[in-house]
Amino acid sequence: MSKLVIVGTVAFDAIETPFGKTDKILGGAATYIGLAASQFNIEGAIVSVVGGDFPNEYISMLQERGLDVSGIEIVEDGKTFFWSGRYNNDMNTRDTLVTELNVLADFNPKVPEEYKDAQVIMLGNLHPSVQQSVIDQMVIKPKLIILDTMNFWMNNALEELLQVIAKIDVITINDEEARQLTGEYSLVVAAKKIMTMGPKYVVIKKGEHGALLFCDDEVFYAPALPLEVVFDPTGAGDTFAGGLSGYLTKTEDYSYDSLKKAVIYGASLASFCVEKFGTERMLKLTKTEIHQRLQQFKNLTQFDIELT
Amino acid sequence: MSKLVIVGTVAFDAIETPFGKTDKILGGAATYIGLAASQFNIEGAIVSVVGGDFPNEYISMLQERGLDVSGIEIVEDGKTFFWSGRYNNDMNTRDTLVTELNVLADFNPKVPEEYKDAQVIMLGNLHPSVQQSVIDQMVIKPKLIILDTMNFWMNNALEELLQVIAKIDVITINDEEARQLTGEYSLVVAAKKIMTMGPKYVVIKKGEHGALLFCDDEVFYAPALPLEVVFDPTGAGDTFAGGLSGYLTKTEDYSYDSLKKAVIYGASLASFCVEKFGTERMLKLTKTEIHQRLQQFKNLTQFDIELT
Q1: Measured between alpha carbons, how far is B200 from B168 in angstroms, rounded to an integer?
Q2: Out of A118, A194, A197, B162, which could bridge A5 as a Cys pair, Cβ 3.0 to 4.6 Å?
Q3: Is position B306 within any domain?
Q4: What is the pLDDT of residues B190-243, one digit of tens each?
């Protein structure tokens, strides 16, 4: 069976949306990625760091979903990374209220021995030097390295970020970040420029407008499912990445055709994530629900046209 | 053969984009709708008004494309409607520089006798009382009435607009306008509210993010083709409406399944329109190019997924 290494934050989030607010709840990129990827019954390991304040029950919960948690370092006298944010009424923009790096400030990722030959690596949004360190620890060249990043690293660690981008196969990035990284407004032109930086596949996330997958001169559009209520967008991008990486790990097929299905799986899982606060919806998700939603995605986009 | 009545402006436009600017060129909603609809070799008539300054060659050009122009009134001592606008760098927003209503101020539409039994009516963006007048002139109840409108009429003639909306089958409207009309942020909820106002089908246009088709509890997503260059967005929405109405007139099939294909045709034709200034691209369009683009739309969205 194919293995997946997931690196990213495991964290506390406090979220405000027009629908309500939460106290400190379970969050973090690796948490969302892991919960989504675990739907594929693959061998997945989370590489992260938490403080002594992190509840054991959260770790157990990840473990019960088949995720290897031996790569989650626990710094007993440290505090877990904490993020707090407030979404505006449009749910597309948010203000960060608090960012406490805590144990993340000195995070030195350690890939478990039995995962150093993993086929797929999912590098969640983190300092590029941390992402680089994970790649360096692999003893066999991975078949596929997927990277997620954000504008913060473009502003503060661009050179290191470009060095990592040169070594990966798939990048997931949002539309504004793709424009910032390339200086190109057209996403088609931006994607082509990013391909020259390293990645074979470029996935541009457009939030409620879905995601675009680029490869050579090809482009594929994974829509976002139009929803009556977007309750909390937190974790949607990471859930998308989790669906993407989980599907590719499961199928061991890294072709363009497989990537298309992977982004559809990612979009489907992300459409659940936003229905409740935090990880709540992902924790109760059933296979039947996922299959029904994939069918909804088919209904949403499939057509057969006769030429007139 | 099925007939289509198109009502809307036939106008002069002067356009500025980051790529250049034009003098007064041929424009107007009915022009773009007519050029798109004429691709289907249907019987189509344009109902509009122009001034004595309007070149005969433009009228002849529409006629050569098989469009009945007897409903285009020429007010010899009047001036043609003129609009001038400048697009911002993002090409999604624009400033109106000049609006001269001219002969449009007293426009009293007259449907040609032989089109008063048309099966399909395409009501382009105009004062709702003008749209209403066209409906009133029909001697046989049309099979399908499609209406396009904009926020200007919501602000200035809401009551009349609602009266027309109650009588139509399909509305095309952009996302912000759908929100304004209903007071609902979610497009799914907005579409459902609009359906209670009259239309069976609601098409919400999202510009570069494509369009959504709603019917009962169903939703279908026609993507916009990601383009390297959007040269001039003028007329894209009207071209979309022209493709939609032309396809439905041609097929005489007004089912949800047919509407899906119609919005794909509309999106395909609109993707050509933005490639050049004004009507330039639409005037040179070939059947082969349209068929190739429809295939691109299929490649963009079609997938076959196995459930894991």
Answers
A1: 8
A2: A118
A3: no
A4: 999 999 999 999 999 998 899 999 999 999 999 999 999 889 999 999 999 999
DSSP code of B198?
S
Mind listing the pLDDT tens digit for each residue in A264-288? 999 999 999 999 999 999 999 999 9
**Alpha helix locations (H) across B151-186?**
151-156, 158-165, 175-182
The three-state secondary structure class of B123 is strand
* pLDDT, tens digit, 9 for 90 and up, residues A69-117: 999 999 999 999 999 999 988 777 899 999 999 999 999 999 999 999 9
C-alpha to C-alpha distances, A292 to A289, A295, A296, B55, nearest whole angstrom: 5, 5, 6, 57
CB contact under 8 A, B307 and A298: no
Question: Which chain A residue's Cα is nearest to B308?
Answer: A40
Q: Report CA-CA distances (Å) from A248 to A62, A135, B27.
A: 20, 18, 49
Residues from B in contact with A at Cβ < 8 Å: 40, 89-91, 185-189, 206, 209-210, 212, 218-221, 223, 226-230, 247, 250-251, 260-261, 264-265, 291, 294, 298-308
φ/ψ of B195, rounded to 5, equals -60, -35
Q: What are phi and psi of B31, to 5 degrees?
A: -65, -50
Query: What are A186's two structure tokens?
Result: 């057209």
| Residue B307 domain-assigned (yes or no) | no
Mean local confidence (pLDDT), B75-80: 98
Average pLDDT of the residues in B30-55? 98
Range of the domain at B201: 3-301
What pLDDT is recorded for position A229?
A: 87
Q: State the pLDDT confidence band at B308, using cuts at 50, 70 and 90.
A: low
* In a domain? residue A217: yes
Q: If you count them, how many residues does chain B have?
A: 308
Please name which of A210, A59, A47 lies closest in space to residue A135, comparing C-alpha atoms.
Answer: A47
Q: Which residues are within 8 A (CB) of B34 and not within 5 positions of it... i.e. 6 or more apart?
A: B6, B44, B46, B62, B65, B67, B242
User: Is A303 within 8 Å of B223 when comparing Cβ atoms?
Assistant: no
In a domain, A306, yes or no: no
User: Nearest-CA neighbor of B38 among B306, B282, B298?
Assistant: B282
| Average pLDDT over all residues of chain A | 96
Q: Is the pLDDT of residue A118 over 70?
A: yes
A119 in Cβ contact with A143 (< 8 Å): yes
CA-CA distance, A8 to A28, in Å (whole number)? Answer: 7
What total of structural domains would you count in chain B? 1
Query: Which residue, B98, B102, B139, is CA-closest to B119?
Result: B139
Chains A, B: CB pairs < 8 Å: 104
DSSP secondary structure letters along A203-238: EEE-GGG-EEEEETTEEEEEPPPP-S-----TTHHH
Instruction: List strand residue ranges (DSSP E) for chain B, in order.
Output: 3-7, 11-17, 20-21, 25-27, 43-51, 67-68, 72-75, 82-87, 94-100, 120-123, 144-148, 170-174, 201-205, 211-215, 218-222
pLDDT score for A93:
84
